[in-house]
Amino acid sequence: MLNPRRPEILALIAALYIALVLNQPFWRKFHDLVSPHSTRDWLFLAAAGVVISSIAYLALLAVSLKPLLRAVILILLPLTAAASYFMSEYGILIDAQMVRNVLETDTRETSDLITWKLIGYVAILGFVPAIAFCLVPWTERSWAHDLRAKFAYAAAATVLCLAALMPMIGDVLSLGREHRELKMTLTPLNYISAVTSYLRLEGRKKAKVIEQYGEDARRAATGSTRKSLFIVVVGETARADHFALNGYARTTNPELSKTPDLINFPAAYSCGTDTAQSVPCMFSGFDRKAFSNAKAETRENLLDILKRTGVDVLWRENQAGCKGVCDRVPTETLTGHVAPTFFPSTENGDDILVDGIDGRIAELEGDTVIVLHMMGSHGPAYWKRYPPKFETFTPACKDSQFSRCELSAIVNAYDNTLVYTDHVLARLIGVLSGAADHGVDAGMLYVSDHGESLGEGGLYLHGMPYALAPEAQIHVPMVMWLSPSLRKERGIDQKCMLDRASARAGHDNLFHSVLGIMNVTTRVYDPALDLFAACRGKPQKAYGLLAP
Fold this sequence. Notes:
This protein is an alpha/beta fold. It has helices at residues 7-21, 24-34, 39-61, 66-90, 96-103, 107-113, 116-135, 143-165, 169-178, 189-204, 275-284, 293-296, 302-308, 351-354, 357-362, 407-433, 471-474, 484-490, 494-500, 507-517, and strands spanning 218-219, 227-235, 263-264, 268-269, 312-317, 331-333, 368-373, 440-448, 453-454, 460-461, 475-476, 478-482, 505-506, 520-521. It has two domains: 7-203, no CATH class; 228-543, 3-Layer(aba) Sandwich (Alkaline Phosphatase, subunit A).
């Protein structure tokens, strides 16, 4: 009879618990992919269970000294239970980018993810078994006896693992090649690998020496005495197919749909699937394929180039930070202010980003670019992202634990955030419409940083690896509005813009389009990516737009 006080048996029990109990998201995914119908299929599933359990057991045997193994179990079980919860509850995958996203999320956003279900899940499936494991007394024996026993059990586990694996090796390799996402659901391998990759990438960064970019930038003279103001609105977690402007059946754009001269881009795509990647990418000058956070963090971006040419730049923040983009320009953080725009919560709604813009227009000293970073539709606490009067669709889920809500209620809450975003953008356009009275030519461009999954295929939230991400996480809404005076000053044909708006666009266009609209010349500007370039009535040379 197996003695549960022996370390090799304790390690075996822990390995089976981790492999078979705490890996339910993996086994559900594995089962769906294999879709077993034949005896061979079921044998494949069983063999996978043997292999994964054996590998987990061998790993625990390697650290099965009493204090070390107990410490490992006390850390491993709660962390693995938490990872399993988030994968089960939201359908996420865990990779290095997800780790970055987690580490760069502020406490206010993190608190929305901490639910009683999470606490119970980690306590019951993580801490209780870990403490029970540590309370079991170990059989005392000599080190030689201990070593012989562990070696024998390790040899048996290795033979069992190979016996289960070898007949199915072709199936394993095929499934692994076709579905690389599987390893991102296998705990604790997924989060250990993800954290290791993240730390390796961070370690490769050089000291914060910022490389100049677009150092040849200058502004082309236009001879105009009027000032210009262009506002870039960085949205959060809005998906294109839930914008009524893009054909969504619900009235999520009640105000923008009535806004004259609005230009809608129905085929806009993001650079990433989370804020930590998308926001630096859209301002970096790298396209999506060439972008990496490490490269962007050591090079100047769009805001630096604008500032160098004499454009006044301001970043207004109602989110969890600019991810390094605004480090070298004036920044206003509005998240901590108590304002009546989000009564009765002490958190601010995105209306606060528009507050005071009219006063700034009246006092504008020179050409200016302002970036407004929205809280938008950040989940899972969608109901916190809009004032009560914007609760258009009911009943709305008011729980961060999605399993407590009907899917329709989750979608209702999410769609309400878009109704509020619509209002904020329409209000901003209303303010900019009056800029001409102060001798200011104004315009704005809104684009969300990424989209959001709302239960399709069991997925929620965002942050999937881009190659595996569903359309909902990368297809984003993008709209633009230019005042008549700005269009006239820049020679922009509105009909041409409307005709071309249906072409694929997105984050790759933002850098070059802002340079173009602000008359900045530089070798790093690419007119092919400037949304305005093809619709300028005047020759591009008059505006100093240079090909790279």
